[in-house]
Write a structure and sequence with these properties.
This protein is α+β, with helices and mostly antiparallel strands and 284 residues long. The chain has 2 domains: 35 residues, no CATH class; 180 residues, OmpA-like domain (60s Ribosomal Protein L30, Chain: A), CATH 3.30.1330. The chain is 21% helix and 25% strand. The chain contains 6 helices and 13 strands. The N and C termini lie far apart (40 Å).
Length: 284
């Protein structure tokens, strides 16, 4: 286990370790959370094999009962670098690839964020499917690494977000009620249909908190909330977990600007980030 106070190779300091998640702080005071992304991929009946290389990087292969393999490469610090879905017939789709050095992001050159949340009836499967499919990221003439999308707010805000209004969380909790899970039915079916047609689609599930509590605690809690929603979509509605990226952003994106306990801020959102990522390639 990584001890609180230890410094990683990239200079980040470990400021919290709850066992399932580690919160890091960089030299500018920015916080980010790391966890084992493969936990979402481990479905009942799957076989998991992890190889560790001399530089500390790893390759984890999850083999499902139908012969599908999900191959994930991560660096020595645990950051996910590459994920490939290999079908039983040998064809492969690269979902994202951060193994190459990404072009630096000039934040000042990116367009200002605009209010562009997708407004759609979340019980209307066809409307959700159209909205998610047609949601276009703002064209800035380049693509980004997954890490840049995850960690740079102005980058991920290039993609419209869908606010999951039907799912909010109790204070200090990452659990969703059965009735709320049912509200995800249309979204789950829409996502499954989209991914069935285009296996390279990638969705970012974001978790958020209100402003009550410490920033470190809220960051880890919001990350669990994102994972809870992704697990519900996968387990109940068969959305392939490898096509979902989960990330918590704590109290950094309050829907209602208040320091008080506000249930509307304890929420989850989703973005279709495929257009932002390096283009997925289908190998036959």
């Amino acid at each position: 286990a990584v001890a609180v106070g230890s410094i990683l190779d990239n200079g980040d300091e470990v400021v919290s370790n709850s066992g399932d998640r580690v919160v890091l702080q960089d030299n500018q005071g920015n916080l980010r959370v790391l966890k084992n992304d493969d936990a979402l991929l481990r479905q009942p009946g799957s076989q998991v094999q992890t190889e560790t290389f001399g530089d500390g990087s790893t390759r984890t292969t999850v083999t499902r009962e139908d012969g599908t393999k999900i191959i994930t490469i991560r660096d020595a610090n645990g950051r996910v670098l590459r994920r490939v879905r290999e079908f039983a017939d040998g064809s492969r789709v690269v979902l994202f690839d951060d193994t190459e050095v990404a072009e630096p992001v000039d934040i000042a050159s990116l367009p200002e964020a605009r209010e562009q949340a997708i407004v759609v009836d979340t019980s209307d499967e066809d409307a959700l499917r159209r909205a998610l499919t047609e949601a276009q990221a703002r064209d800035v003439g380049r693509t980004f690494s997954l890490n840049q999308v995850r960690q740079i707010r102005k980058v991920r805000e290039l993609a419209p977000e869908l606010d999951l209004d039907a799912v909010t969380f109790a204070t200090g909790s990452a659990a969703i009620q059965p009735s709320q899970a049912e509200e995800l039915t249309s979204l789950g079916r829409a996502m499954s249909a989209i991914i069935s047609e285009r296996p390279g689609e990638v969705f970012l599930i974001e978790g958020h908190t209100d402003a009550v509590g410490s920033a470190t605690y809220n960051l880890a809690l919001s990350d669990r909330r994102a994972e809870t929603v992704a697990l519900a979509l996968s387990e109940y509605f068969d959305v392939p977990p490898e096509n979902m990226i989960t990330q918590g952003y704590g109290e950094s994106a309050l829907k209602i600007p208040t320091l008080d306990a506000e249930r509307a801020n304890r929420r989850a959102t989703i973005r279709r980030i495929t257009p932002l990522l390096r283009q997925a390639v289908l190998d036959n």
